[in-house]
Structure formats: C-alpha cells, structure tokens
Amino acid sequence: VPSGTGMGLPAAVRDQVAAVHRGSALPERLRLYDGWAARYEQDVAALEYRAPHLAAASLAFAFPAPRAEARLLDVACGTGLVARELHRRGFRCLHGVDGSAGMLERARSTGLYQELRLCVLGREPLPAPAEHYDAVTVVGALGEGQVPSTVLPELLRVTKPGGFLCLTTRSNPSNLRYKAELEAALGQLEWSGAWQKLLAQEVVYWERATTEEESTQGTGYISGVVYIYQKCPVPHLEEG
C-alpha cells in the first residue's frame, strides 16, 4: 500500500488532476480537458483509476442479455475508457458525448463508437430523442465543479422505460458536499417513482489520491461509488 504525500505520483499528474477539479469556469475547464486529451490515458493509468472497469462490470451484471443490439449512451465519454470496458463485455452499439473536442477526437480514434457528439451537459440537452437508449452511463463526471446533479432528469429523458443508468461519483473529502447533493437528487427521483435503485456499491480503492488530505484513512487512495438505477416502465402519475 503506497504511503506518503504525493503518493508516488508524477507531479504533472497531480497538477493536472488538481487543475480540472479546481472548480474553474466551464470554458476554461473544457480547455484543460482538450489539452489533457493526449496524456489522459497514461495519467489515469498512473492513478490506477478503476471507475470505467467497475462501472462497466456493474452495468453488465444488471443488464439482461443479449447486449450486442442494445443502444448505450456514454455521457462525458472522454477518450473512450468506458467504451473499451463495455465493448469487452459484449456491448457493440455505443454512442458518446463529451464537452471537450480534444477528448472526442481521441474517442473517435478508438473506433468503438457508432456516434460521437459534442455536448456540454448542464448547459444544453443531450443530442438524443426521448426514450432512445437501453442504458446511459456517466462515469467520472459527476463531481464538484463538473456535471451538476440537476442533469439527472435529462439522463432519464433519453433512457427507455425499463432501461438502466450507471452513474459514479467520488467519496473523497472535497467531493462530499456534491455527493450528498447527488444522493438527495437520486433519492428524490426514486421517491417520485421515476426509477428504482438496483445497486449502490462503495469502493475503497477507486483511484490513487493526489494529496494526503484526500486519501481515505491513510490508504493513499480515494474511495468512490457506483450506482445502478432502472428507469420505471410505468409513467408516474402525479397525485391530486
């Protein structure tokens, strides 16, 4: 188990992660992601970032066969890390959206997506008709200074009744306020009958911490959580 400040990570990786989580204004943050695209995958490998693997495994577990025909939307798809994991598990019809053109260019080069679109979630609606997708994933983007928890109804809108939503967030100290907001919003939608929770899996070794303060109980890692929801097949009737 790694210990000590900096957690043995290259300074460039620490600085980059700090920059994108610093809560800068959106255009500036998208520029940071554009600039990070070329080095993104080697940096997250250094972080031992497990969210794409954990999310895809959880979704595959919940998802009824067959998978090849199912249409999936990978929101905040980045360079395609989630698509790679989904593809390995038999999902073939993958669409992606991201706010960073630089990231989308990398995603396009993987050849794993049928369709890729630029979309800044929280600012504009998803470029898809209602009830279009069998599953929607948002891995890594639901966090402080990134995608607001107010996007949940928009994710639900493009999901077919009975379809699945796979979401992740981090449980490190600087994201706890956001996580509480997210969980309140998730619970509100469940209470209203929009979807039901199938899984909320807390994972201790989510990725390596970039600072001692963020590390979970001195492990050198931060923790995170994978949620799986299923959109309710029956439209909810408002009371009264």
UniProtKB/TrEMBL annotation:
GO molecular function (one): S-adenosylmethionine-dependent methyltransferase activity
Pfam families: Methyltransf_11
Gene name per UniProt: Mettl27
Protein name per its UniProtKB record: MET27 protein
Domain named Methyltransferase type: residues: 73-166
Signal sequence interval, chain numbering: none
SUPFAM superfamilies associated with the record: S-adenosyl-L-methionine-dependent methyltransferases
